[in-house]
Design brief:
Length: about 300
Amino acid sequence: MVILAKKGACISADRGSGGFTLLELLTVVAIIAILLGILSPGLRAARRQVAGVISMSRQKEVASGLLEYAVDYSDRLPQSVATIGTGEYWNWTEPMMLTGYRERSPGLHRSMAEYLREYIPDPRILSCPSAPKPYPNLEQVWKAGDAWDHPETALIQDPVSGNYCLWWSYSGYLSETGKVFMGPSSPSGGGRESHLIMSDYLGYDHWRNPRQFSSCERFEKSEVVAGTLLSSSLWGGKGETDSEPNQLPQIRIRATYLDGHVETYTTEELTGLKVIWKVETGEPYPDGIGPGEFFIPREAIR
């Protein structure tokens, strides 16, 4: 009895026609499913390892570009563009900013591209490879610099947020100690300045993902936090349990220092940092408002 025939091939209930029986096909499908089940965890782990290697390479390239910039600009690193407001009335915002809202003061840029385009011509290295998707307009953002304006928004000048945290020339509030974190402003990173220049983003209670963790690295039970016209996509969720910030999801993040070396950290080796809302006092944004809390290596604090 022939069940299905097409172009000379057939699936039959017996072997007489030379085709496969339905039972044989179902058996093959079951075996393939079992093999995929066995191989999938290994393949996922391999993909994570490859993404990790790519991320380390990208962060090293950023470090190299920063140092080249410093050679040409009197041993100074670029200003941070992670600010809101101008003149005396400004405050910090999330450290993932690639293009800020406005120039903080005359002579400064709102776009990191204006500082680093010559030294980092390919903007893809400023995007974490483990994130769900790259920001679709990244090349246009990098090319336009201070003039960037998304064609689908009503704003005259648009900001753009990436998925790496850029710590040079940045200040933040350290949750554990109440002290101010100071990112390096020069290759020497003197005084109280940290030597940390960038890291994978891991945070809690960002306005795009309230009361949950967000990261450019995928973690247990995380789902895609879709990007917007002005921001990159992320992974987000509550982690392994309905946890608070002192119970971080079990992932590893990479962080890069002034000398170009990259370290990998477990979440137990991280500490919290909040965005400073009032520059004159160092007061952070209140909980539940703004960019939330960010996590950096504890050993990066000086």
